[in-house]
Amino acid sequence: MTTPTARHRGRWRLAAWGLAAVAVYLAIAVVSVTSGLLAGRPLYDGIPLVPYRWVNPPENRIKDNQKPESHEVTLKFTPSGQPDPGSATSADAQVAIIFSRHLDASEYRPDGDNSFRVKITPLDPAKVGPRPQGRFFDGNAYQIEAFYPSGAPVTTGTFDIVVSYAVHATDIRRWNGSEWTPLEAPSAQREQYQIYSPSPALGIFVPTGDGDVPTEPAKASRADLVFIVLGLGATIGVAIAIVSGRRKGPPVPVGQAPGAKAKPTRK
Amino acid sequence: VRRIDRLGSWGVPLAVASGVLALAYRVPSPEAVFVTAGVGAVGGITPVASTHSEGRLAWLWVVLLGALPFAAFAAWSRPLPARGGLAVAVTGIVAAIAEELFFRRLVYGWLATRGAGLAVGVSALLFALVHVPVYGWSVLPIDVAAGLVFGWQRWASGTWTAPAVAHALANVLALVSLR
Q: CA-CA to A34 of 20 to 30 Å: which in A83, A196, A263, B7?
């Protein structure tokens, strides 16, 4: 039997542990992002649902491949000079450009324009230029262009390029007219199969990975046997637990405190 | 009878081990959600001792406090476009419920008789470890921290549904641009 005071104290203790857990999470989140461990919000079950859309699909994707889409959007400047929205994302979300970081409005509208148009075009990277030595193209190339209403291109500013990749990209490369040059400070969001880098200019970008031949993720055929064995194990375990639970009767509530051993109350 | 009792003591550990390995062995493919759902079913039907703690907190408060850090992180961190949109969000919700059935109902319930601290800690660690093969080691600290929040919710509310709501919300928030 517990007194109201003990219950009250117990609730406060529960709330204090909760606040501590929240504080630990926030501290680790801040450290993870500032140290570069995480590129952004983590997804706690981030299995990619939608297969990568290829301009020129690899052999094993020819049957089910959907072509990526081009995208055009107009971004207006707010009175304070910031583009609104601060980013442009293709409809299939395979590529995005973010304008809102490192923003200096004067860089984006030197002539007082109040908007600009962004155009994103997917390309086959092999048709743009030869792949870098020792690397493979891990997705489409994307040409990203931006124009003021006057037709003048947006040439100044700092842009964050975010691209999805198919297997395991480790950098983003920009076509400089003769070769693919890597952007600095690439950071990957592995659970969403995305990688991003700041870029000093627009142009044509492609995610690339280490190695000559892309390695596909493990296929279901390899996993089948493992999952059959694990499924059997789980089924046997559940069956044993159910039979054993019936023999022992209904489960008995057990009280406990964090870190403290509970008194076994099973009768 | 003693032999059956000994066999019975292996049932839950066997189900837990199989589930953990199945989750860790998931490959990044659309089919992975079925593996997760299957493991969730194991977590949902395996009998575990019900547990309660002194001075349980109201379910809604536990959900709100548990969801708070995920909302704060989402508001602060860089918005990135999600591949798959609504489909990924639905998958994230299904997977969140399945994983909470497994980790906060089955694993927690199995270990809680030895102490809530152990149950919270081990379920958080296993939760983080099964995500390493897919996400990489870089997400281990944040996943352990998330597991601790979910474990606390299970302890404070007395039910796995509170962390399931927060987990699903966290997954959805990860895909939604808040700024």
A: A83
